[in-house]
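Protein modeling request. Please complete all fields; requests missing the sequence field cannot be processed.
Requester role: graduate student
Desired output: 3D structure, token encoding
Chains: 1
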Amino acid sequence: MAAVESPSTGWNPQPMSERIVVRCYSNYHDAKRAVDRLLVASIPRKRITVFGRGLGWREAFTATRFVKAAAAGGAALAATAALIVWAFGGLDRGFTWLGAIVAAAALGAALGAGLGAGAWALTRRDRTVPETGHVDVDHYEVLVETSHADRARELLSE
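Delivered output (158 residues):
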């Protein structure tokens, strides 16, 4: 729907002429190339619409998320390494398995806290710059007004 300004009532929606799908494309580049082809063939831009279907939002995997994930993985790895060291070295000195597990958990928690604090310090940034993702589109439909549809199909089938 297009909208035009009316002096008495403000903005009023105006119905658009009927449009039909003439071709579908799996990526934006191909859809844009099709529109360019239609424009070169003198089909007016106002008579063409590109419509994206199957929209989905994908969060950005930023350096911040990577460093925080690495810190969490590093903490788990440190806890595992500490458990192995305490288990094999500590059991020779009279520690029980339970004592080795508790010591490894304490060491892993301390290392994880240190890695997490380091990750936080490295990823502090200016909060005015948002971390954004992007929209994924399943496919693009090129629609043309019915009066130009046959010619558009012919042009895009070549």
